[in-house]
Amino acid sequence: MGSLMYFNSASLDGYIAGPDGRWEWATPDDEVHSFVNDLMAPAATHLLGRRAYEVMKVWDDLPLDDLAPAEREFALQWREVDKVVYSQTLEAVSTGRTELRPAFDPDEVRAMTDASATPLAIGGGRLASAAARAGVLDEVHVVVAPAVVGGGIRFLDEGLRLDLELFAERRFGNGSVYLGYRVRREDDA
Question: Which residues fall in a coiled-coil region (predicted)?
Fold first, then answer.
């Protein structure tokens, strides 16, 4: 049985993009990028909201020879995973191995994770929040960047409550910190 894991980078004040929509302050260096590649490698399927998909789809077409080794490794991983994009506004997707669905269905996602031998990844704070509210999110992973941005797009929705159990952590030379959590449920007692 697989699990559903959410990963993103965030500022210390909890945003994945600042008020201007930019996230250059969270761009990983080679050490962080290699770590994230290893973290995400087991996930053979990625579930994405429209915004996350629009940010990530560039990896399908980047010339591999122009990329640093950690970026090249990520691009190759991205091209090999199955992707499900949830959007009511997109009419089509342009990347390989990608399906478009009009709405997030928690029952379908739980069935997918239960049937999978590997974890599924979920991308985008709003979609991960929807999964958390529906009780299908199993893990939360974050690389906290050494920045405070004062607002923008949240890591997870405001008002969302989760009880978490820390199971992994790591400090990086650039001042970033990785934290890995399991979502605790009432029946985990």
Answer: none
